[in-house]
Specification:
about 150 residues, mainly beta, 5-stranded antiparallel sheet, 4-stranded antiparallel sheet, 1 helix, 9 strands, about 5% helix, globular
Length: about 150
């Protein structure tokens, strides 16, 4: 795997945002997007499992406060904004989790629909994948969600 000097690494601020749709009940991790390596705190990405979507930092995860199954065949917006200390997890225009993971994300290629270091693949649709090299504000993340006509929660 070649490195990508454009992706934020270490504990640099960043935001990822994606629209996804799935009705898959496959077990295991359904990685939407991620980069880094499969070592403790060296991966950054968004994943869906049966209890809901979550941010993964490879043992430095941020999960929703309440379980929510998004494998309903509907389109959902998921985003994570990391400012170097705090990570805010958004689902469909609302904050669903906050954490303070210590990250040392490695510099690797961005994978869509595949978990790094695994043969597990995402079973669904992805759209409007975005990676920013700064932490978007709550107002900016809400604006991305509402771009497609969705009302604020």
């Amino acid at each position: 795997m070649a490195s990508n000097p454009q992706l934020p690494t270490g504990s640099e601020p960043r935001t990822v945002s994606v629209w996804f749709q799935t009705s898959s009940t496959a077990s295991g991790y359904q990685a939407l997007l991620n980069w880094g390596v499969s070592s403790s705190r060296q991966r950054f990405g968004l994943t869906v499992i049966s209890s809901g979507p979550f941010f993964t930092g490879q043992f430095a995860d941020v999960r929703p406060t309440n379980s929510v199954d998004v494998r309903d065949g509907q389109w959902h917006h998921l985003a994570a904004a990391y400012d170097g200390t705090e990570d805010r997890l958004w689902l469909d225009g609302a904050i669903i989790g906050v954490g303070t993971p210590t990250l040392t994300t490695a510099n690797q290629v961005l994978l869509l629909g595949q978990k790094i270091g695994s043969s597990e693949f995402y079973d669904g649709n992805l759209d409007d994948v975005r990676v920013y090299d700064y932490a978007l504000t709550d107002v900016e993340l809400d604006a991305i969600y509402r771009e497609n006509g969705w009302p604020s929660p």
